[in-house]
Structure formats: structure tokens, C-alpha cells
Amino acid sequence: MEIRSLDRDRLGPGNNHSQRLMPWEALNAPFEGAWCVIKPGTASVKHAHHEYEIFIAVTGEATLESGGERTRFRPGDLVHFPPHIDHQVINEGQEDFEMYAVWWDLEMSEKFTGRHQKEV
Predict the structure, then answer these.
(1) What are the CA-CA distances from residue 112 to residues 33, 83, 101, 104 (Å)?
(2) Which of 59, 69, 68, 67 is nearest to 38 (CA)?
(3) What is the mean pLDDT of residues 72-96?
(4) Which of 4, 34, 53, 88 would be 103's cystine partner, CB 3.0–4.6 Å?
(5) What SS3 class is residue 9?
(6) What is the pLDDT, as a whole number, of residue 22?
(7) How far apart are the two ends of the chain, measured CA to CA in Å?
(8) How far, in Å, CA of 75 to CA of 99, rounded?
(9) Cα separations (Å) of 114 from 28, 50, 110?
(10) What is the reported pTM?
(11) What one-character DSSP code corresponds to residue 2?
(12) What is the CATH number of domain 10-119?
């Protein structure tokens, strides 16, 4: 067993409110991920990228903005963003909003497959 601990002191606007927790050498995964904490009155940077991405809401409440649409995002909710779609997490509430983000693309999947085939 190998545990990667969250360093809450490093979370903030300078790193888009997140800490990358994957990958690491012992973990052969076809995706990458990050724990995100958006403090009250702050927001992630609006961005888009070539990867597919999902967000899993864990605690608090936030607003998701994507493609000019805004919607509530609460614990237990899951959202998917296809490649090249802009998205932003906005915390207009009074408590921290925490979520986990996972993203992947073809290159990550191919590298995973290659590593897996070497292990078998």
C-alpha cells in the first residue's frame, strides 16, 4: 500500500486550487487526477484542454460554468467535459468546496497499455 497525502497548505489560486495526486511510479493508471479545494468567494481559472475530464463533487456547493451555462454542483454530483470545452468552478458559498478531477486522453491510455503489457 502506498498513500499520497493531501497538502492543504499548497492549495490556492497559484496552482488552480488543486494538488495533483496521480500518477506516480507504482500506480499504472490510464488517467491523471487532482484534489481541488475552492475557497469561498474564489474560482478556478476558466480553461479548456484536449483531455476528457470528469469532476466528482465531495463537500460544499459550487457553481459550474461551461459554454455560457451555469449550474449548481453538489456532493455526489459528477460532471463530464469533452475535450476543448471551457469550464470553471465558482464558489459563491460560505464553506470550502472540495472535488476530485480525473482526466485522460489517447496518449495516456496508450502509455498505460504499454506499461501493462510489460507487467504481464
Answers:
(1) 15, 20, 19, 11
(2) 59
(3) 97
(4) 53
(5) helix
(6) 66
(7) 20
(8) 8
(9) 10, 21, 6
(10) 0.86
(11) -
(12) 2.60.120.10
Residue among 62, 51, 55 at smallest CA distance from 91: 62
For 47-65, letters b (16+ CB in 10 Å) and e give eeeebbbbbbbbebbbbbb
Highest mean pLDDT range out of 13-17, 34-38, 57-61, 113-117?
57-61
Backbone angles phi, psi at 36, to 5 degrees: -125, 135
Place of cell 495533483: 20
Q: Hey, which residues does 73 pair with through a beta bridge?
A: 62
- Going from N- to C-terminal start, the domains of the chain cover 10-119
In whole angstroms, what is the distance from residue 16 CA to residue 45 CA? 6
The residue assigned the cell 454542483 is 73
